[in-house]
Amino acid sequence: MGLSIDSNSSHLAWVYNIYQNTGVQIPFPIISDRDGSISRMYGMFSPVTGSTTTVRNVFFIDPNQIIRAILIYPLTNGRNTNEMLRLLIALQTSDMAKVATPANWYPGQPVVVPAPQTYEELLRRVEGEEGLCCVDWYLCYKDLP
Asked: Alkyl hydroperoxide reductase subunit C/ Thiol specific antioxidant domain spans which residues (predicted)?
């Protein structure tokens, strides 16, 4: 969803302008936060400018209402949609498969398996646990189906 301190009329004009100029229809709701109460709650106003100058925050909030990641883009720089999608898929992959995604990870690449919690698990890794590619006993990768 989108959130802005602009009015509902402004949002309608903005969404329609995007459609007119690009053919893209915005598929998510945009909430008007005229008094800035929601924006303040999430720290969305720029402490640098000390005003309501636009700061483009992207929040990833899970179904349990926990903020999992925040990307902050200044007014002068556009957002990276590919990175937002990559991060969303990485969060979903980590949750689903109980793994971590390494730096620069993209879907289809190997994921990091959590470190062993017992000495027996450590020994299985050292002995070459099937399906894992290990750099060392604590750092192993695997491919997801």
From this structure: 2-69
Residues 6 and 41 in one domain: yes
Closest Cα to residue 59, out of 11, 103, 3, 15? 3
Pair (38, 107) in one structural domain: no
Element holding 14 (H helix, E strand): helix 8-22
Tokens of 45: 């106003």
| Predicted TM-score (pTM) of this structure | 0.77
Q: Is the dihedral of CA 75, 77, 78, 82 positive or negative?
A: negative
Cα(138)–Cα(92) distance, integer angstroms: 23
- 79 token code pair: 């957002």
Does one domain contain both 59 and 128? Answer: no
pLDDT in tens, 89-102: 999 999 999 999 99
Distance (Å, whole) CA 125 – CA 105: 23
**Domain region containing 65:** 1-79
